[in-house]
Amino acid sequence: MNIVVVGTGYVGLVTGVALAHIGHRVTCVDVDKEKVDCLRQGISPIYEPGIEPFMKENMDAGRLFFTTDGASAFREADVIYVAVGTPENEDGFADLTYLKQAVKDIAAAVTKDVIVVTKSTVPIGTNHEMKRMFAELAPHVRIEVVSNPEFLREGSAIHDTFHGDRIVIGADDERAASVVADIHRPFGIPIFHTDIRSAEMIKYASNAFLATKISFINEIANICEKVGADIEQVAAGMGMDARIGSSFLRAGIGYGGSCFPKDTKALAKIAANIDHHFELLKAVIEVNNKQQRKLIEKAKERFGRLAGKRVALLGLSFKPNTDDMREAASLVVARELLAEQATVVAYDPIAMGKAAHVLPKEVIYADRVEQALERADAAMILTEWDEFRQLDLSVYVKQMKTPIIFDGRNCYALDDVKTYAIEYYSIGRKSVK
Ligand SMILES: NC(=O)c1ccc[n+]([C@@H]2O[C@H](COP(=O)([O-])OP(=O)(O)OC[C@H]3O[C@@H](n4cnc5c(N)ncnc54)[C@H](O)[C@@H]3O)[C@@H](O)[C@H]2O)c1
């Protein structure tokens, strides 16, 4: 199979490398020349554990290529995967500009029949619209469109690609569906065949459901704080019920990233456009917006005013093991602290390069966690990197002016914290004073 993947971001790159690894010849196309130059040298423009050796292995084996020359790649392709971004636009809907451009680029280049597989998360009806565009722009060839939504998680994307729970293939055309199923068969993951609209909806509904679980447990955590229960105990007890399941029951300062925030808003918008007011999902979004500010609230309660306080921000990416800063809680927290006239000193093991482009310029960056904590009045843990979870708690005592920790990810056991002269505020648990 001659496969082309359009877009070499978090999804496209991992998809391309994984498809090459199971034996296909894969050409990854991107419009970003700098990215492609990097990739050709075996350097990944994104941080994803394990990706570089995996890329190199498949490049050396002559199965994986990178180019900006989409037209040549599309001409040779049997199957084209589209994995371009579908960010949020101003009204909260998915912005399909990149996707439509990819459709136009493909239509202008192809000279033989081809299957286009949509990995990008797109609103219900988009794949049919793509099919209509292809019929109009490339009437000389037959282009079948298949929806194949992606469920990988950044930070464990390679593992997820090889050990996912299901591969969803939404198609109107049986032959196209079976070609795509055959491509994915070596992964050994159950394949779920469905129609295109249902496949598109499965992606949004899955993300909305997971986001709901997160906002739900965060609300329970907020109540736990007030009634003296412990959210870790509550979540453990709930999770033992197989009907509930233990995943996505970790209380914290809410979800971020490139998917949940935009996909929940897009689904609420999709519903609103057909006069369905998705009240539950709107509440999930609202709860999350509040939850991202939770540590600021706690700090204000503790200090009164934050002006002049030196605050160490530990963790900037939206979750550990990624450098992705999209919709990270750190963006909200840093901005609010600066608005309160606090001094913000930030540290992240991986994401500081990307963070510097998106955080306010007043943020000071530290090279090491110890340096970030030096003379700090308070520390705020925003991302549960192992480096913080495993940090000897005496470091806080040694480095900080006052060892006061606001932990947005419940990194430490309360019994451990109690053995140090640390003031500790976490989510859904008793404070340690
Ligand atoms: N990131 C995730 O964890 C994740 C998980 C599941 C689904 N998704 C979905 O997958 C899609 C891609 O997400 P991402 O995070 O990989 O995006 P990304 O922004 O990291 O990457 C998109 C890439 O597409 C390239 N691009 C844009 N237009 C192009 C064109 N016309 N031709 C060639 N390249 C083009 C960009 O230069 C960029 O490198 C989105 O729809 C997203 O919602 C993402």
Automatic annotation (TrEMBL):
Keyword NAD: yes
Catalysis performed (reactions): UDP-alpha-D-glucose + 2 NAD(+) + H2O = UDP-alpha-D-glucuronate + 2 NADH + 3 H(+)
Regions annotated as coiled coil: none
Domain of life assignment: Bacteria
InterPro entries referenced in this protein's UniProt entry, alphabetically: 6-PGluconate_DH-like_C_sf, NAD(P)-bd_dom_sf, UDP-Glc/GDP-Man, UDP-Glc/GDP-Man_DH_C, UDP-Glc/GDP-Man_DH_C_sf, UDP-Glc/GDP-Man_DH_dimer, UDP-Glc/GDP-Man_DH_N, UDPglc_DH_bac
Residues the entry annotates as binding substrate: 151-154, 203, 248-252, 256, 319
An example Gene Ontology biological process: polysaccharide biosynthetic process
Pathway noted in the entry: Nucleotide-sugar biosynthesis; UDP-alpha-D-glucuronate biosynthesis; UDP-alpha-D-glucuronate from UDP-alpha-D-glucose: step 1/1
Residue intervals of the UDP-glucose/GDP-mannose dehydrogenase C-terminal domain: 312-414
Keyword NAD on entry: yes
SMART domains given in the database record: UDPG_MGDP_dh_C
Molecular function terms from GO: NAD binding; UDP-glucose 6-dehydrogenase activity
Keywords from the UniProt entry: NAD, Oxidoreductase
Residues that bind NAD(+): 30, 35, 86, 121, 154, 262, 326
EC number, UniProt record: 1.1.1.22
Active site: 259 (nucleophile)
Pfam families, sorted: UDPG_MGDP_dh, UDPG_MGDP_dh_C, UDPG_MGDP_dh_N
Similarity field: Belongs to the UDP-glucose/GDP-mannose dehydrogenase family.
Protein name (database record): UDP-glucose 6-dehydrogenase
Lineage of producing organism: Bacteria, Bacillati, Bacillota, Bacilli, Bacillales
